[in-house]
Design a protein that fits this description.
The chain is mainly alpha-helical. The protein has 24 helices and six strands.
């Protein structure tokens, strides 16, 4: 009997890439660019000095293939710790069954709304998917939401399963949507802001055409997801994740209507503790500076939050403890948005702390003891440990390339290959280089610092506007990141959603091809038409 062939495990795929990169360090000559510290939009960054490339001895990697896991853990430590904390916090949160109750309530509301003919014709679930994806796309376009999507996967995957879809649709709602926003890029300070700063362009100039790009990408990207979602809705067994999604179906909202829903003394105590904390913080920070593109708005955000929490918290407490915990989740999301948009932006440590606070607050609201909180946090961290481990392994790919001293050589070879292509050809080649470099450097900020000094200088030589080059950069940066195995965020999202990497590639490849072609078509007008800012 012929043995059934199995696709390699995600760990095997990534380790094979590490080994391949180690082989490249024996073949590709070493090289390095000189770098200088440049102040970009108020922040000092190390950027390449164009024309400074020189060959150096490469450092062939051998036993370092095995140490790449260790060094990758160090390199990806922030995302790894973030994933473990998120896993522990949401495991505690799930004890309350609040998310299950929320999903059950949402499904009930959907059935009521379907009584309206126009909503039934359009499909309430379709409207929900579109609104959620537009929201996350906006977040990706405005403040570069990326790592934060890992936390939302835990919410949207079970919600998607309950709506009759699969885990892929749940991931699309937040992760793919944020990727669309990253590519469309309206005001993202971490990619567009840095790229324009290095290219010496007016900050956020050319917004009119970028808004058009964002709208078109959302129409195409969301339409693809809706087409897939409705196909799965008609026949769930057509999903490549049907068997794997048994994990989520077993955790579905069966018997939710029988859950005892009432507020306890502990719930009221938690409400007053948080409310008092918000009131005190309102005096400490009565007004906050919010950055939106180049505009700065001074708004009394915390006092507003305190007032809203007092009202919504009291109303949710009148219903049940579960609705109060859902209210905590909603305010956690609002605080997350506030934190990444304020002038002194929160880093990933503060975001992780926010979600840990959510988990502990939810546990206290349930009346859980300290021992129960500790036990459940460990269970959650253990459940999500595979996601953390694979992020460390993926980061080892970059470690091997950097330690082998071949990253700059690859960059220099790609940039010098742009000659004699013509305007459209050269711009397309730059677009391709950025897309390829997503395999090597997944951070948009790092890519901007690395690539833009060279690409902006080269665009002058071929008489292509620097604005067009910046556009090629941010479109290229946002698409292939959704499939590259070196992306710690992608691998983290897939592990949390329990989607094998090979299954994701099978689903995502047609989507990526469509979006890459669309990106190319959207670049053509930047060199063939008169556009404001270009």
């Amino acid at each position: 009997m012929q043995k059934k062939r199995t696709f390699p495990h995600t760990y095997v795929i990534i380790f094979s890439i590490i080994a391949f990169c180690a082989i490249l360090t024996w073949i590709i000559p070493g090289g390095t660019f000189e770098r200088e510290i440049v102040n970009v939009n108020g922040i000092d960054r190390a950027v390449i000095i164009p024309g400074s490339f020189q060959n150096i001895d490469n450092v062939p990697q051998t036993w370092q293939i095995l140490s790449a896991f260790y060094n990758g853990f160090i390199r990806g430590s922030e995302i790894i710790v973030f994933i473990l904390i998120i896993g522990g916090a949401f495991w505690i949160l799930n004890l309350s069954r609040a998310i299950d109750v929320g999903i059950y309530s949402f499904l009930g509301t959907s059935k009521i709304l379907e009584k309206f003919r126009i909503l039934k014709f359009i499909g309430v679930n379709n409207i929900v998917i579109v609104l959620i994806m537009l929201m996350f796309s906006f977040f990706g376009a405005v403040f570069g939401m990326s790592e934060e999507t890992i936390a939302f996967v835990i919410i949207f995957v079970p919600m998607s399963i309950s709506m009759g879809y699969d885990s892929i649709v749940g991931v699309c709602m937040c992760f793919i949507a944020a990727g669309i926003g990253f590519a469309g890029c309206l005001f993202n300070p971490f990619t567009l802001g840095i790229a324009q700063g290095i290219a010496k362009l007016e900050l956020y100039s050319g917004i009119e055409y970028r808004l058009f790009i964002w709208v078109v990408m959302n129409i195409v990207g969301i339409s693809f997801v809706l087409w897939y979602a409705n196909k799965i809705k008609k026949n769930p067994k057509k999903s490549i994740m049907y068997e794997h999604d048994d994990y989520w179906r077993k955790k579905e909202t069966t018997g939710i209507e029988n859950i005892e829903q009432k507020s306890t003394t502990s719930t009221w105590v938690m409400f007053f503790i948080i409310l008092i904390g918000l009131i005190v913080y309102s005096f400490i920070e009565p007004k906050s500076v919010i950055e939106l593109a180049k505009y700065k708005l001074t708004i009394p955000v915390i006092p507003i939050f305190a007032g809203l929490f007092a009202l919504s918290g009291f109303m949710s407490l009148k219903k049940s403890m579960q609705f109060f915990v859902l209210n905590l989740l909603m305010f956690t999301i609002l605080l997350l948005i506030y934190g990444v948009m304020k002038q002194d932006k929160w880093d990933i440590m503060k975001i992780a702390t926010l979600f840990l606070g959510l988990g502990i607050s939810a546990a206290i609201s349930m009346g859980s003891s300290g021992n129960v909180i500790a036990k459940e946090f460990l269970n959650g961290a253990k459940d999500i440990m595979s996601a953390a481990l694979v992020v460390g392994l993926a980061a080892g790919i970059i470690v091997i390339l950097n330690d082998g001293k071949i990253t700059d050589t690859i960059l220099n070879s790609l940039s010098t290959s742009l000659n004699n292509f013509g305007k459209i050809g050269s711009l397309s080649a730059m677009y391709g280089i950025v897309s390829i470099f997503n395999m090597i450097i997944t951070s948009g900020t790092a890519k901007a610092s690395l690539l833009m000094p060279i690409l902006s200088e080269f665009s002058d030589l071929i008489h292509v506007s620097r604005q067009a080059t910046v556009t090629a950069f941010h479109i290229g940066d946002g698409i292939t990141n959704l499939i590259t195995p070196t992306s710690g965020v992608l691998i983290g999202v897939l592990e949390v959603a329990r989607i094998p990497y090979q299954k994701w590639v099978k689903w995502a490849f047609p989507y990526i091809i469509i979006m890459v072609i669309l990106g190319f078509l959207l670049l053509i007008p930047t060199v063939t038409m008169e556009l404001n800012g270009f």
